[in-house]
Amino acid sequence: MTTTETAQVVSSGSRDEAAGEALLRLGLALRDSGYHFTTGTPATHQRVNRRPTNGVARDLRDVFGWSRPFSADVLPAGFLELLMAAGAVEPCGDLWRSRVRYSSYDGEIFVHSAFPTDAPDSVFFGPDTYRMADAAAAHVSSRAEPVTRAVDIGCGTGAGAIAVAKRATSAEVFAADINDQALRYTRVNAALAGVRRVHPVHSDLLSGIDGEFDLIISNPPFMIDPAGRAYRDGGGADGNDLSLRIIDTAAERLAPGGSLVLFSGTGITGGQDPLREAAERRLAGTGLAWSYREVDPDVYGEELDGPAYAWAERIAVVLLTAQRPR
């Protein structure tokens, strides 16, 4: 796919046509430059950026990975103009700061929100994105029958949907989100990956999409977030409400032989996992065969210092898979 063709993919149906094309061209230029950046947790990002030598950007990774302020002469010719065309740069004293980041995964490059992700419509990309997309890709590769219709609920950057579309090469893949910014970035990221079969749709769970699915994947917000940020707050006393709603939706919309791959998180105390216990109750009587495991038993430890998790002894990220028999 040529640069012109990919730009047309982004532009089609987008209300921010010029901005999307600029972000696409910036991503292509970064990829051509050999750019690569693996995104860590917000806590890691903050710690690294606090080091005395990391106050100002010195190269492209500092600008578009670490979200450090930069002078115009750090960027190659044309880069600042693309950022301006995308509305993705802001003054920072005598310097500039990019409002977007570009992260690497699965041989592709993904645009998402700059650090810190404080805005209500922030689009997050981090370690959980890598884990969820890996789990979705592995599930597609292990299936006995091909995926023909899939959806990524709460798609964010579209990384999961794109990973599925690259492996299920004949599948129709939907990327659903309530955040219009996420859908804009998904369009750009699908174009950067050269994947035409990813369809971004504004949808609360599957309310905006009809029919059944061979595969439903999701990495929903699962934290207890006092600020109530949409990309982070999972809802309810344990942060698990959205994950449980996705389980309910999958029980209604999975086709025979269809699967749910849900990557989520939960606070643990006294050996009790409230998400697993609630999921077991929700799945009882659905006829779905399911499994549940901790992918990482101890993440986001800094959250234990705050009142929201004063009751928890650790936070785990988990993977729930469920399948409807044929």
Automatic annotation (TrEMBL):
The keyword DNA repair does not apply. This is SAM-dependent methyltransferase. Keywords: Methyltransferase, Transferase. GO terms for molecular function: nucleic acid binding; protein-glutamine N-methyltransferase activity. Residues 148-262 form the Methyltransferase small domain. It comes from the Bacteria. It comes from Actinoplanes siamensis. Transmembrane segments: none annotated. The keyword DNA-binding does not apply. It holds the Pfam family MTS. GO terms for biological process: methylation.
